[in-house]
Amino acid sequence: MALVLGEDSPLPDTAADVEDLALRLRGHVSQLGALTPSQEPALLRAQQLCSGGLPDGYMPSRVHLVRLAEATQDLIAAVQAHDVAPAKSVQRRRWWKPPINVLRGAVFALACVVLAASVPPDMTAAGAVLIALILGPMAWLALRGDRVSGRIAPRDVDPPPRQNRLPPIR
């Protein structure tokens, strides 16, 4: 709305700019319409302006845009006057995220299976003990989360869920 009603904002230059601003204002009206009682006069006026197309011509299209912005402002005032709380967003089902140690253990087990499949059949017991001595400490480090350099890997921390908020209407 500040792009249309602001004192310092110039009139849009092209028809594409007018259409873009009208589309934005229609989006604001549809979002605010969900928060407004259905018989609110400001909502009915804004919906009536949104339902009509943009008039042809330079000045009529800009006048329509200004009227649409003013109707959106009136709708914001109506929502604030009714003090309606925004509807809660629907929570999406999140897939189970395994802890990092489960992933490390699974990768290590897969590596052991691949190594066991690639061992020649005539391997001696000493060779098997040597492989176990190498893989044992590696498994211990992998499951602890340590790196060979000794630095600890970052913990498996989920970021906080994103809040879907409506953009501020100016």
Summarize the structure.
The chain is mainly alpha-helical and 170 residues long. It is built from 6 helices and no strands.
Summarize the structure in words.
- With 170 residues, the chain is mainly alpha-helical.
- It has two domains: 2-82, no CATH class; 100-144.
- The protein is built from six helices and no strands.
- α2 (15-33) runs antiparallel to α3 (41-51), α3 packs antiparallel against α4 (58-82) and α5 (100-118) packs antiparallel against α6.
- The N and C termini lie close together (5 Å).
Q: What descriptive keywords fit this protein?
A:
170 residues, mainly alpha, 2 domains, 6 helices, 58% helix
Give me the secondary-structure topology:
Elements: H1 2-5, H2 15-33, H3 41-51, H4 58-82, H5 100-118, H6 125-144
Please give the share of residues in helix. Answer: 55-70%
> What is the makeup of the main sheet?
none
How much of the sequence lies in strands comes to under 5%
Radius of gyration: 31 Å
Low-confidence stretches: none
What's the tally of helices?
Answer: 6
- How far the N terminus sits from the C terminus, by CA atoms, comes to 5 Å
Label the overall shape: rod-shaped
How many β strands by DSSP?
0
Alpha-beta content class: mainly alpha
The run of helices and strands is HHHHHH
The structural domain count equals 2
Mean pLDDT: 75
